[in-house]
Q: What sequence folds into this?
């Protein structure tokens, strides 16, 4: 027997969802005549202003893993989750805008793998293109799986229908308007998330007596779990010792693993986000894209993490036999009772923290809006993956290996076929996905294997002209192998060897899964860095002539002269960094 | 400039939020006497107030988009020497919208 749904929707809620679906399809319809060439379809004809590409830049990343996962992490780790933003995103976004965009945009590469082709060689490009294509399909599937499961649990909707309808809508608007359609809907989703979640946070804070009330209630939770009282409401002060904070990481692993390796690996090399900047209408616009994106990004913790934190303490006091904590319910064991961990404590279903907040605080009407915002983030996350996938497939795999020199119309057609295939594969992946408690941890693990070494390759490629294609290729393989070996030889505390590590024997035990993930990334990065340098020194470099516009020392610096002060990338970057530092200090 | 040539992005977003504002705000107005309904949101008629905020946001975007469009259709700026000089200056200064 299926459990009763948590919430009942009213006609008004369905009406709101209906309006949203009409709007996204309307955008696709309105843009259908504007996609005539493959550049229109894959790169929006490089015609968009920076505020649009900037909002799309963060929205493309604001899928299921973000909204649900960050709420879950907020309930699990507290305000320290904002390290994923203030340490794990902003510095990398500033770096990609200032230093890397000149090569991505300036080289006229149509994708990140294509930049690797221009800078290194075909094999490096293909390696990156194939692993990226697989990853986009996979994360899209994970996202869809999460959506289907959540809608089933919350509203009693059929998993199959939810997944297929969402996939069909995404498919329709991407087919009609290509990347522009995806980007427009990402901007639309950005506003929906802001308008859907801002009142949730406001009501939630009001209910717990503001930040002060939240802090004192979370202090009780922390003490009860054997942590310092401020563990959930401070970002840095408990990071000296991995056993003293809920994340279970010490500051060095966090800053190097998350802040440097994983963050730069994602924001600086992931085509899903870089594609948004490549759609910008000028070099300056492309450089400003991640910098503009950084401003809302640094404020997102308040929108997506706070609901999880509030959920942990809201309504606390009447914890019955069902034994969740606050609004966060317990995971259910096979027998129907709450699931217990090895120590006999109840395992909480953190992924429900944010959805439960929506259901408990919003009356019908606003509930429809909040759920629509969630749906929008699921769908536009999927569209982001699909548009990145079809571009990489068409340009980097199909055009370079299967059919060269065909007409532009042919590649546009191929892009549409790839869109259909990508959505179909993602739906298949959705049915395969599942098994992890926290979606974020799973995605971080995948990043660690494939993405962690990537930034070493790009950094060396862009800033050391001696780097060779053989070096890059060997480095990437070695880095990914190192990640797998490190993961296989270590284990988070309290977990049996298996998919979470230790499959090659256990040499070291980390205090938490995230600590293991961060250190896996660090090992992969260092291995890739060292191997790339050694192999590069042993192989023949390309002549300087061929590297103009692709390497820092051989590329003229873009000039900001003539731009108003506030539009200059450097000024914007400095402002963003100062504000981020201030946020870290306020919540130290 | 506010979007790909052909579709100003403020139109669909402004349109969506106008309709959402009317729907949610109108629903809030119709249910404003129902205290039980608004007990979970701590007695605040969040539908009414937030509906009004969304309506204002939507109308603002629509107004901005139609304003730009009307100005643009009055006379394309690039057609006159003065206009193209202005465009050039605005482009240089990054003032264009």
A:
């Amino acid at each position: 027997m299926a459990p009763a749904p948590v919430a009942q929707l009213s006609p008004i809620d369905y009406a709101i969802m209906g309006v949203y679906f009409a709007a996204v399809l309307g955008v696709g319809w309105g843009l259908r005549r504007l996609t005539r060439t493959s550049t229109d379809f894959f790169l929006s004809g490089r015609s968009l202003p920076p505020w649009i590409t900037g909002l799309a830049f963060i929205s493309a990343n604001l899928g299921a893993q973000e909204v649900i996962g960050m709420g879950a992490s907020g309930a699990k780790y507290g305000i320290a989750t904002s390290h994923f933003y203030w340490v794990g995103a902003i510095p990398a976004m500033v770096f990609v805008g200032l230093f890397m965009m000149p090569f991505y945009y300036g080289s006229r590469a149509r994708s990140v793998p294509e930049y690797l082709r221009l800078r290194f060689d075909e094999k490096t490009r293909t390696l990156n293109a194939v692993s990226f294509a697989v990853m986009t399909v996979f994360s899209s599937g994970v996202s869809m799986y999460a959506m289907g499961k959540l809608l089933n649990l919350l509203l009693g909707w059929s998993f199959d229908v939810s997944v297929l309808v969402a996939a069909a809508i995404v498919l329709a608007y991407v087919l009609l308007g290509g990347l522009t359609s995806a980007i427009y809907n990402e901007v639309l989703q950005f506003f929906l998330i802001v308008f859907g979640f801002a009142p949730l946070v406001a009501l939630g804070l009001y209910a717990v007596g503001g930040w002060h009330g939240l802090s004192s209630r979370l202090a009780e939770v922390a003490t009860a779990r054997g942590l310092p009282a401020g563990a959930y409401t401070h970002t840095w002060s408990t990071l000296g010792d991995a056993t003293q904070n809920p994340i279970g990481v010490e500051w060095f692993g966090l800053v190097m693993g998350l802040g440097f390796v994983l963050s730069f690996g994602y924001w600086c090399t992931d085509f899903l986000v870089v594609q948004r900047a490549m759609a910008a209408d000028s070099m300056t616009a492309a450089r400003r894209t991640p910098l503009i994106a950084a401003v809302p990004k640094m404020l997102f913790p308040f929108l997506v993490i706070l609901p999880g934190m509030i959920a942990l303490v809201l309504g606390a006091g009447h914890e019955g036999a069902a034994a969740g904590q606050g609004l966060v319910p317990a995971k259910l064991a096979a027998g129907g009772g709450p699931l217990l961990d090895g120590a006999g404590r109840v395992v909480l279903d953190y992924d429900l923290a944010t959805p439960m907040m929506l259901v408990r605080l919003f009356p019908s009407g606003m509930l429809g809006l909040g759920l629509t915002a969630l749906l929008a983030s699921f769908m536009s996350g999927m569209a982001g993956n699909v548009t990145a996938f079809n571009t990489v497939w068409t340009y980097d795999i199909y055009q370079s290996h299967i059919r060269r020199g065909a007409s532009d119309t042919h590649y546009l057609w191929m892009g549409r076929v790839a869109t259909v295939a990508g959505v179909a594969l993602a739906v298949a992946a959705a049915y395969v996905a599942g098994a992890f408690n926290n979606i974020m941890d799973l995605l971080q693990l995948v990043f660690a294997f494939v993405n962690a070494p990537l930034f070493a390759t790009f950094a060396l490629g862009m800033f050391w002209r001696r780097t060779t294609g053989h070096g890059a290729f060997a480095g990437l393989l070695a880095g990914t192998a190192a990640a797998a070996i490190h993961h296989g030889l270590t284990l988070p505390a309290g977990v049996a060897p298996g998919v979470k590590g230790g499959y090659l024997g256990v040499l070291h035990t980390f205090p938490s899964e995230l600590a293991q993930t961060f250190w896996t990334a660090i090992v992969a990065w260092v291995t890739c860095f060292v191997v790339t340098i050694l192999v590069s020194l042993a192989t023949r470099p390309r002549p300087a002539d061929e590297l103009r516009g692709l390497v820092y020392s051989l590329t003229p610096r873009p000039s900001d002269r003539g731009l108003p002060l506030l539009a200059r990338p450097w000024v914007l970057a400095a402002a963003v960094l100062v504000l981020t530092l201030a946020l870290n200090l306020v919540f130290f | 400039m506010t979007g790909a040539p052909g579709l100003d992005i403020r139109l669909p977003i402004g349109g969506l939020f106008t309709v959402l504002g009317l729907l949610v705000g109108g629903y809030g107005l119709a249910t404003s006497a129902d205290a039980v309904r608004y007990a979970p949101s701590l007695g605040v008629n969040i539908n009414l107030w937030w509906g009004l905020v969304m309506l204002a946001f939507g109308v603002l975007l629509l107004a901005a988009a139609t304003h730009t469009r009307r100005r643009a259709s009055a006379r394309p700026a690039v057609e006159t020497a003065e206009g193209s000089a202005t465009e050039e200056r605005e482009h240089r200064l990054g003032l264009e919208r």
Observations:
- DSSP finds 21 helices and two strands in chain A.
- Chain A has a mean pLDDT of 85.
